[in-house]
TrEMBL record, chain A:
Record PANTHER family: POTASSIUM VOLTAGE-GATED CHANNEL SUBFAMILY D MEMBER 1, VOLTAGE-GATED POTASSIUM CHANNEL
GO CC terms in record: dendritic spine; neuronal cell body; postsynaptic membrane; voltage-gated potassium channel complex
Domain of life the protein comes from: Eukaryota
Transmembrane regions listed in the UniProt entry: 187-205, 259-281, 326-347, 359-375, 387-408
InterPro entries xref list: BTB/POZ_dom, Ion_trans_dom, K_chnl_volt-dep_Kv, K_chnl_volt-dep_Kv4, K_chnl_volt-dep_Kv4.1, K_chnl_volt-dep_Kv4_C, Shal-type_N, SKP1/BTB/POZ_sf
Topological type in the membrane: Multi-pass membrane protein
Alphabetized UniProt keyword annotations: Ion channel, Ion transport, Membrane, Potassium, Potassium channel, Potassium transport, Transmembrane, Transmembrane helix, Transport, Voltage-gated channel
Name assigned to this protein: A-type voltage-gated potassium channel KCND1
Entry similarity comment: Belongs to the potassium channel family. D (Shal) (TC 1.A.1.2) subfamily. Kv4.1/KCND1 sub-subfamily.
Residue intervals of the BTB domain: 40-139
GO biological process entries: action potential; protein homooligomerization
UniProtKB/TrEMBL annotation, chain B:
PROSITE patterns: EF_HAND_1 (PS00018), EF_HAND_2 (PS50222)
UniProt cross-references to InterPro entries, sorted A to Z: EF-hand-dom_pair, EF_Hand_1_Ca_BS, EF_hand_dom, Recoverin
This protein's UniProt keywords: Calcium, Metal-binding, Repeat
Source species taxonomy: Eukaryota, Metazoa, Chordata, Craniata, Vertebrata
A Pfam family the protein falls into: EF-hand_7
Protein name, UniProt field: Potassium voltage-gated channel interacting protein 1
GO cellular component assignments: cytoplasm; cytoplasmic side of plasma membrane; Kv4.3-KChIP1 channel complex
Region (Disordered): 1-21
Amino acid sequence: MAAGLATWLPFARAAAVGWLPLAQQPLPPAPGVKASRGDEVLVVNVSGRRFETWKNTLDRYPDTLLGSSEKEFFYDADSGEYFFDRDPDMFRHVLNFYRTGRLHCPRQECIQAFDEELAFYGLVPELVGDCCLEEYRDRKKENAERLAEDEEAEQTGDGPALPAGSSLRQRLWRAFENPHTSTAALVFYYVTGFFIAVSVIANVVETIPCRGSARRSSREQPCGERFPQAFFCMDTACVLIFTGEYLLRLFAAPSRCRFLRSVMSLIDVVAILPYYIGLLVPKNDDVSGAFVTLRVFRVFRIFKFSRHSQGLRILGYTLKSCASELGFLLFSLTMAIIIFATVMFYAEKGTNKTNFTSIPAAFWYTIVTMTTLGYGDMVPSTIAGKIFGSICSLSGVLVIALPVPVIVSNFSRIYHQNQRADKRRAQQKVRLARIRLAKSGTTNAFLQYKQNGGLEDSGSGEEQALCVRNRSAFEQQHHHLLHCLEKTTCHEFTDELTFSEALGAVSLGGRTSRSTSVSSQPTRPGSLLSSCCPRRAKRRAIRLANSTASVSRGSMQELDMLAGLHRSPAPQSRSSLNAKPHDSLDLNCDSRDFVAAIISIPTPPANTPDESQPSSPGGGGRASSTLRNSSLGTPCLFPETVKISSL
Amino acid sequence: MGAVMGTFSSLQTKQRRPSKDKIEDELEMTMVCHRPEGLEQLEAQTNFTKRELQVLYRGFKNECPSGVVNEDTFKQIYAQFFPHGALPCLEGSPCVEFLPPSPPLPFCLVDASTYAHYLFNAFDTTQTGSVKFEDFVTALSILLRGTVHEKLRWTFNLYDINKDGYINKEEMMDIVKAIYDMMGKYTYPVLKEDTPRQHVDVFFQKMDKNKDGIVTLDEFLESCQEDDNIMRSLQLFQNVM
């Protein structure tokens, strides 16, 4: 409707003639509007597909890209059309929005792609028409959930390590939430699990009748009364552990109020409270009756297992999300129970010695019958009773069967979501590694290029021409950029192998056939390297072939690691990496600052690190034959710290 | 139990049936299409060029694919031109875009529907209850490109609510009140209760030559032509297209 506002404006203005005779003051002069050429057809070329429309159509929504002067940026004067390098299929929907005023959502396209197109053309997603709105929202929510899972998976689990300056509290909390992060946390996790099990089993065993060995077996006592001391001690121990755990969690929680209100903390409290109440309550008979009932709450300790079991958590979450269906089930069952109980009571009223003494008494019969249990302790004897009893049992089957599929489908969806999340987490590492490998290809290109002497200004003409010509303009400029950086920082980019050679000559066995003179500098980081990645470096060294194309897999990984970023999938203990992040880069430079630069083209998936530490020690004083670049032959001592912020 | 559920559901369907019929009726109505006369004919009948007619029709057809505007739609269209238009925004209609960014008024404060009603009656010359494209274009032609005489005659027709050829005080009162309603509550200076009445009195003083309490077409034409303000203002909307 609003689209037509522009259409109807002439009519509204014309209708204003009706006000004229009534006007007591002279009306303002009309605005001087440039004589428009009527209407013109615009051509919009989207990736080769031409769309033509009236200019008026696009002008309907002046706050979008096509309706405002922003489209002039895309105007190609030579061809007289507006060119957009976007998806033509999606553009169809955008243009239809201008024409009809309703934005439809294509069903076979990815919802994120659609969103991106909308954002590009300046349309808010709220404009999606009613017909498609629900589906759009559902799909978007699903997507968002999935992405949230991804992020969560990154943060928890093997997520980035805590900043070095994290407090005890943060570390403790992290240990509690992710037991896999440190062995101490893992131990604690299993110990608490063990004690939960012990406590529950003790509760159970307490009630088993123990046969006294030499006693008269006239009266069998439950074990709890035979060995009260033992059970009391065990209980005390368990409760102490649980209390300690609870207090520690309370201390470590980032938001104490929120922690206090969470379900798990409530379960903890309920699990340990009976014990303390029992201690406080004096042992007189009136109260001990109540106290005995309190002991029932000890069974809640079994819920503490939900921290240890994910399946249990899923079940709990499912039940929570199906609350409305469960509520409906309960409600309809209650209705049915009351109806049938009443009917049965009045049907059986006449019989003497009947079990159906009152309607509430008949409730039991109804429930047992509707759930098809049929204990047989209450049975109708009149014919009417039997008829109604059979109707009751048939309808029970129906009513209970109705909401169950909903709950089942909910559970299945959540369960599969979880499975997907786990699978994705597992594959994430592989994915990251592959991406890094792809990125390192570009680094290698540069290094390769350097080795081929491309950086040298003088060189045998043909040789150089060949390898220069093979690069695209983009590559040329990119390499030039890296070269500039090298010159600026007096450092050079290098690959993993030469770098590791320079660092830790001795401990890394299995050298390749490269004849590089090993640096003779006694470097501390050598020890770091040996402790951190002996296996990895060796593996790499052995695998290296003479082909220089893929000479170093993930040289960036190496550099990353050395910079103290813990993204490598290498299975070292994180504490060792944590230990020496900064002082390791003393290298040759005496410079303690990182020199950061981007040596890779940012690739789409945003999980990859864009920074790395290229500061290679090779620049300083290493007569490497691989680098023919003699400009850095003399060790470039670093009088001042050089710090370049990442581009 | 099942029987109970069965009866419940059947009761509900019975209730729903009338509304389903209504929806079907509405669907039928919208299917009715009206096609205007040919372009040449319209060009001959009105003072618009072919191009202008084309633009007008395209806009009209886009908004009303069935080719006719009924009164409710008319009112809604007109209401959107005035701040915090009186009629509630329909679900999904992006009319909020065009409302000025200020706190929304409650809906009854600004009412453009009365005046729109009179307008509709003025446009709907054949009194069919719906405005076709020809009516629309004819009226626009008069208002935008017509002679002074034609415009004044059209205005007289607008004011004459019962189309009896005379304007009496009550009709004028209605019209003036409708116009003031379009202003809404928040005006400066504050609208007083008897402002419309005063306005009507002034109007009648000017227009009613023989002081008989009604204004005829000739009186109206004569009085308007004497007033320079009105004459000048009539040229204002000349080149709206």
